[in-house]
Amino acid sequence: QHYYITNNLRVRMCGRLICVLEGHNLTVRCQFRDSAGNMMRPEWEGSYHTPGYNLPPTSQIPVLFGKMGERKFRSMRWGLVPSSHTKSIKDFKLSTHNCRAENLLESQIYSKAFFKGQRCVIPADGFYEWSSTKGAEKIPYFVHRKNSDESGERNLLMMAGLYDKCRLNNEDCILYSASVITVSASAPMSWLHHRMPALLETEEEVKKWLHTGTLKAKETLPLLSSRLCIDLYPVSKVVNSVSTNGPHCIQKTEPPKKRKSNTLDNFFNKKAKTSPDPVSDDMIKKEDDRAGTSNK
Hints:
The protein is of the alpha+beta class. The protein is built from six helices and 17 strands. A hairpin with a 5-residue loop joins β4 (about 30-35) and β5. The longest helix is centred in the last third of the chain and has 17 residues, at about 280-295.
């Protein structure tokens, strides 16, 4: 596994998001139809998030949530802090930016939010993942959704998640936070990492996941499955640093070339392994020949 340090926490490397749309444009891209069939835009609660090309856990990210017939956006901390936590945020040491779908029903952190209907969607342009082939150089890849239209505009990944809120230090200020739900990786992703975000591909799936009351909690679990709707390509290693930000982060680079072996060295190594020992084989044969001649 690969790790990086942020806020003195050691967290897994499968956690860098790209979300470059600012608040207004994000509401335009996430329009939906209400129960009357009218096209609507989600409303924002609070201030906008700060867009970025390299967002690590604990960053503020845009989170879409809602109930029957309405949807709202709010900027939330990436890494769910449960409502039971009432101390300082510095006292919360757990890494919760991802939560496994298989653990939703039993997890002490996530099950309460799940059964309370605190489901959400985290829209993103994509995320980074690093190759982890043993002995090979670690290469970052930009994972994004396949384009399904001819506009050239990249489609958003709609990642299923959970959110919660708590009062830190029992103050009036409420902290909103969210986690991305992960599932086993599909074929396009599995060679790179064994996990991937739980993606919602259609508006109908987003509606079922968001609108608590449409389905009971356990009835939403089939929505959390591996999907094939992704593409990926290698990018520059500048994204290794969380301080790096900008469009150059997602520019495609050439895939790493396999290191060529030294043919001459291989030849002599092979020759050394396959050639007979000049002392143990040739000398013994000569001694045997001499012994045979003297006995005649």
